[in-house]
Amino acid sequence: MPSMSNSPLVKDTQSKQSEEATIGNILADKIAIFGGSWKFLISFAIFMAVWLIANSLIFWWNPADPYPFIFLNLILSCLSSVQAPIIMMSQNRKEAKDRIRSQQDYEINLKAELEIRKLHEKIDQLQLHQLEKMKKIEDIQLELLLSLRSTVD
Questions:
Q1: I want to staple 71 with a disulfide (CB 3.0 to 4.6 A). Which of 65, 79, 123, 145 is the partner?
Q2: What is the Cα–Cα distance from 93 to 5, expressed in whole angstroms?
Q3: How far apart are CA 91 and CA 78, in angstroms?
């Protein structure tokens, strides 16, 4: 029987995902990566600090956004309402990639298990063949011993 190693075990899922990716998907991934980085957190903290300081201390006589910071609240609400679906889109794409990888792992494990079974069958056949040979040799030795015994008697 031919070995299963003739068929490819690993498929290039990365290039398949890259070919199927739309500009929106790629953009969602990049935004999600940036949104979850230290660079974003630090720049966001700096933006918040500058906004609060500018509207509380520097422009105290005529602030663009006075104390309850309603405009800042609007900006933060808009940011979160846009950022949440983008992160969810990116997570859905990653989940699809994980599903493909999981299926690929299953196929590889299945092929490996089938190959191991075939190896076990081959070893069992070799053992049977070896036992048959040993039985024949044993029969020949027994005949020789019996003939030697009859000649000695």
A1: 65
A2: 31
A3: 20
Handedness of CA 116, 8, 95, 32 (dihedral sign): positive
CB of 108 within 8 A of CB of 10? yes
pLDDT tens sequence across 91-133: 999 999 999 999 999 999 999 999 999 999 999 999 999 999 9
Residue appearing with tokens 């196929």: 107
Residue with tokens 């075990």: 9
Sorted by where each begins, the domain ranges of the chain are: 13-114
Residue 8 has pLDDT above 80, yes or no: no
CA nearest to 25, candidates 95, 104, 105:
95
HSE toward the beta carbon, residue 136, CA cutoff 13 A? 6
Amino acid letter for position 60: W
Phi/psi region, residue 68 (left: phi>0; alpha: psi -120 to 50; beta: rest), is alpha
